[in-house]
Specification:
The chain is an alpha/beta fold. The protein has 3 domains: about 5-75 and about 210-405, P-loop containing nucleotide triphosphate hydrolases (Rossmann fold); about 120-205, no CATH class; about 420-450 and about 490-513. The chain is built from 17 helices and 12 strands. It has a 12-stranded mixed beta sheet with strand order 2-1-12-11-10-3-9-8-4-7-5-6, with helices on both faces. A hairpin with a 5-residue loop joins strand 1 and strand 2. Helix 5 (about 160-170) packs antiparallel against helix 7. The longest helix is centred in the C-terminal third of the chain and has 39 residues, at about 425-460. It is elongated, with a radius of gyration of 32 Å. The chain starts with a strand and ends in a 6-residue tail after the last helix.
Length: about 525
Amino acid sequence: MENKVFLGGGGEDYGTKQGLTLKYANRHGLVAGATGTGKTVTLQILAEGFSKAGVPVFLSDVKGDLSGLGAAGSEDFKLHQTFTDRAAKIGFDDYSYESFPVTFWDLFGEQGHPVRTTVSEMGPLLLSRLMDLTEAQEGILNIAFRLSDEQGLPLLDLKDLQALLVWVGENRQELSLRYGTVSVSSIGAIQRRLLVLENQGGAKLFGEPALALSDIMRTDTDGRGRINILASDKLMGAPRLYATFLLWLLSELFEELPEVGDPDKPKLVFFFDEAHLLFEDAPKALVDKVEQVARLIRSKGVGVYFISQNPADIPEDILGQLGNRVQHALRAFTARDRKQLKLAAETYRENPRFSTEEAIREVGVGEAVTSMLMKKGVPGIVERTLIRPPSSQLGPIAPALRKTLIDTSPIAGKYEALQDRRSAYEILKQRAEKAAADAETAEDREEEMSTAEREYTAGRRYSGTRVTRSTSRKTRRGDSFGEAMGKMVMKELKGTTGRRIVRGILGGLFKGR
């Protein structure tokens, strides 16, 4: 199908080809359906279609199955005959097996190239969402980011943020006068959340070299768009980290890409699998931001496709912007299920030949109810569609082949070595070391003066001259008890005890780093 991504066959006998028009592919879309109804295969054939059209794709591989895009299907596969029969039924005359250019990514650096960003690029809003901070704790995080900008303290990784929060705590009285209350308990709560995030593997997300967006928008030498696959099977163990990372990436695309209007085909297609994780318990400010990005990013040439079990998982304001729909079967066992099924059916343009609600309930595995945008962006009439078979391998590839594809990718070696340049942690550490050195110098000077005074006094006595003092060791009558205590404390601070305090506060943070 020219200028379209072929989806499958529609109509009563499935003989009418159904496709997604490339010109309207940046109007976003939805792939929904219950578990086991064929969403993953639909995602796979959409990625294949966009790649063949020269459009780069970014998707997350939650179950590990989508790695099969990097290998061609095989006639030895158990579903080979089923695939060929289906291809003939829907008029897929040039159906053949082929592999596609893939780039594997992995936040943990195990099943793909490491993917990182910096704490500064993530920003306080997404970090607060990631750590589920309260409003007061988010306020302190915003103060830390402001100080980072004002004092030239780059926040690249988690230890930079941890060090800066300690500095904020030490200077909380002065900062409270300027920014509002800065409590030790709130800082402690943030530090504990950072520790949890670190234990979940979140520390691997932050650092340099940070991901360059150009590396996920590549085309291969033959003009096909590269399919970027984020290994997410392990990442799903920390669902909030998974959702926040994908939202950050979407935000970066929105902020950095230039306006292109309505191109003939997208510059990138972004698939957001398990989309319900993005909106569960999300604050309104975050949902509003997602809505804004979804509304405006299409003018940057980026199409966003949400994959979820039920359309009800997507907020209504965002759902209304998803013009291209592939709806697999929904179960309707309870009153709530039936209500959601009815609501899902009402979002489609009716087809007089059948009931949309019944079709959504009845379609089998590999079938779907589809509606694609037509001329001038008008929603097409809903149609029952038999999804075409994939050309690439169905199921995960062997680890050896994955390693070969990683080692031979165009960005091999670019992100593997972690860089640790001078940033907030190193700058604050240097300040602490200087403060400790100054305290030690002051103590040594005090000791030298005391020694000189003792030697001078001893010399006067030896020469027979009586040394008299205008003041005695006794406190003067006008001295208060508080003044006497203050002098004693200052004397202690100048000595060894004072040096230990300085090192304990300023230097203890950096021990063992």
